[in-house]
Amino acid sequence: MGALDDIVCSPDPRLHQVCEPIDQITGSVKQLAKRMLKCMYAADGVGLAACQIGEMVRLAVVDVDWGAGEKNPYVLINPTIIEANGEEITSEEGCLSFPGIRVPVSRPSHVIVQALNLDGDLMQYEAADNLLAVCLQHEIDHLNGITMIEHLSPAERVAAMRRYAAALEAGARPGDTTIIE
Ligand code: NI
After folding, report:
1. Choice among 70, 83, 93, 139 that is catalytic
2. Catalytic residue flag (residue 139)
3. Going edge to edge, which strands form the sheet with 59-62?
4. CATH classification of 3-169, choosing from 3.40.225.10, 3.40.50.2300, 3.40.47.10, 3.90.45.10?
5. C-alpha 68 – ligand 1 centre gap (Å)
């Protein structure tokens, strides 16, 4: 069983559940973060939320830089958006839980996120007009049971799900044509 087999794909109901806060950074939380990073890199993703491998806790990993060569992972425990503003920008998002499709999603261009890291330090991440800004919002959405599809209009959603069904039919696997996890 490879790392990609761990990934929960739509229409799995776990993608629509709200994840539980982590109250202690135990060894199993550290193990989970490690597993998630392995999975994200194996799938060529730039982010992954714990619920995407079936663990219903508020943990996400992000690395938007590693395509350029060096790995620079962020592990976000109990992340919260403390500011999301600026102009709405639309970008083509992908998701490891929706193999084979991308959809245009509009989000605020500027975001400030606070989260604990694996050492229990409260970290602050600020991003604007870039992939990190999109990715942070996309992953925190996952922890709230929201996928990129929920950002679409009803008509767009139907069309996207039709393309998704076709992609699955054609054998799409997590990581195929995605830019974000
Ligand atoms: Ni995703």
Report:
1. 139
2. yes
3. 47-49, 59-62, 74-94, 102-116, 122-128
4. 3.90.45.10
5. 21
